C-alpha cells in the first residue's frame, strides 16, 4: 500500500514538471528569435528620426502620440497614413532586448532603456554637435619660418671640389690611441667627409671624394695617390679645387689647438710644393691659390689657418693649378676637433670655388 502511493505521487509530480520545462524552452527559443530579428535588421536613420519626432512632437490632445512616446511598439500599428513604413520588427524589439542587456556601468543607458524620451534627446544633441563642429584653424607660419620650410640647397650639376687622401691611414691619437691605422681609413677621412657634407648641404657644391687607401705601402703613398688623383680629374673635368687632406705630426697638445668662434678646433697648415726636386714650372699658381685660401680662412674664421708653407716635393699638385695639401691638426688632436675644422673649411673653399667659376666665365666672355 505504501509503495503504490509513493509511486503515484512521483508520477503526478513529473507530469507537472514537463509542461513547465517545455514552456521555459519555448520562451528561450522565442527570445533568441527576437534577438536574431533585432540583430538582422539594422536601425536606419529614418526610422530613428520618426521615433524621435513622434516622441518629441507628442501632444496631450493626441492619445496615440502619448502611447507611441511611452511604448515604441505602438509605432508598428495604426492607420496607413500614420504608419512609419521604415520601422521593422527588429527595430521595435530592440527596446525590449535592451532590458536584458543593460550596461550597469553606464547609468544613462539604464535610464534610456526605461525612458525613451532621454534617448531621443541624447541622439538629437549628438547630431547637432556633429553638424556644428568645426575643424581647428591653422595659424599661418611666420615669414621667416615659411622661408625656412621652403628653402632647399640646389647642388651643382658637376663636381667642383675634389678630396682625396695620400696618407689615408693617418689618424688622431687622442681618439684612436695611435698615429696610423695600417691598411685602414683613419681620422683624416672623417675630416674630408665632414667637409664634403658641409659643402653639399649648405653651399650647394658637389664634391668628388675618394677614400681609396693609398698608403698600404707607406713609401709608395704618393705614387698610389697620383693614380687616384688622375682618375678623379679624368672623371670630373669641372673640378675647381683639389684637396689632399693630411694631419701634422710631432706637435704638442698645446700647439695643436686654436680657439675659433669660442670653440677649440684643430688648426690648418697649407702646404705647397715647388720645383726644387722635379719639374713643376707652374707651382706659383698653386702657391697663389693657397695664399688666397689662407686669406679667406682668416677672414671667415680668424685664427684657424697657420699660413702657407712651401716644401720641396710636388705632392701631385702639378696635375691641377688648384691642388693643395692641407694638414688638419696633428697627432695630438682628437678626431672630433679635426672634424669641426673640416666643417669650418667649407665656407672659405666655397668662396674660392665661386671666384674660380666667375673668372672662368669672364675669360670665356672675353674670348
Compact overview of the structure:
The chain has helices at 2-40, 45-56, 63-70, 89-98, 107-114, 116-132, 143-150, 173-176, 187-203, 221-235, 283-300, 335-366, and strands spanning 159-164, 206-209, 241-248, 258-260, 263-265, 268-272, 305-310, 323-330.
Characterization of this structure:
The chain folds into two domains: 122 residues, no CATH class; 222 residues, Aminopeptidase (3-Layer(aba) Sandwich). With 367 residues, the protein is α/β, with parallel strands linked by helices. A hairpin with a 2-residue loop joins strand 4 and strand 5. The longest helix is centred in the first third of the chain and has 39 residues. About 15% of the residues have low confidence. It starts with a helix and ends with a helix. The protein is built from twelve helices and eight strands. The strands form two sheets. It has a six-stranded mixed beta sheet with strand order 2-1-3-8-6-7, with helices on both faces. A two-stranded antiparallel sheet has the order 4-5.
